[in-house]
């Protein structure tokens, strides 16, 4: 009898142990599912963030990236709120800053995103998981993929990037075939009574024109604006920075103080009607929503018959 009893007890113990392990594994799975978090490797170290964020506050720069990935924004920076193309998309989002802590608390966010120059980061972290980025630390498309990782939507972000690069490269080939491979393009902006010229990574369509389409910038632009990203200029030297084609960004559409000067009127690009005016408030960004709009605009203008 005893020789049968020992194997039976061993089998019984193994069954109980297996059931116990199975139960523990299930509990762990339920706990992970219930917690609903992922660990995002931010530039400042790992951060636990919601796996499916529902109430995001964007303090700077990245509203378009978040919206492009279908994630709800409850609080947003003033620049994004002022974008006329996003009026409907952000109609229910409150305008906030890094100093309006009480308003942010009332919004009950589950994630806060911004640039690393925002104030009160320690206080913001007490409200919700907070992730910040250094502008330009990675290129603009890698930045979107990083936002995708943060929002647990990396595949969607990567798919858009792959498709966009293909579309932009093809458009660049078409445009160079039309206007000439050595033709130069400038991006000029008038903001608060000051003129600026931009390099290849400062929004306003510069990433598409110079990085993806590989169009050329005038020598003066390359010498002064490429490294810092932008360069302030006066009306007197404006002709030196104007390419064969110009994207002219304006925040005040009613201000024609530059366009009415003889200096401006005598610039070859102006005489040839190769200046394409854009609304600075909507052309300012470099997120997927804006980039798609900019790409369509460039194709329409440069490839017009």
UniProtKB/TrEMBL annotation:
Keywords: Signal, Transport. It is a lipid-anchor. The lineage of its organism: Bacteria, Bacillati, Bacillota, Bacilli, Bacillales. It comes from Gottfriedia solisilvae. InterPro entries: ABC_transptr_periplasmic_BD (IPR002491), Bact_iron-sidero_bind (IPR051313). This is ABC transporter substrate-binding protein. Residues 1-18 form the signal peptide. Its main location: membrane. Residues 54-305 form the Fe/B12 periplasmic-binding domain. Belongs to the bacterial solute-binding protein 8 family. One of its GO terms (cellular component) is outer membrane-bounded periplasmic space. It is found in: Cell membrane. It comes from the Bacteria. GO terms for biological process: iron coordination entity transport. Gene3D superfamilies: Nitrogenase molybdenum iron protein domain. PANTHER family: IRON III DICITRATE-BINDING PERIPLASMIC PROTEIN, IRON(3+)-HYDROXAMATE-BINDING PROTEIN FHUD.
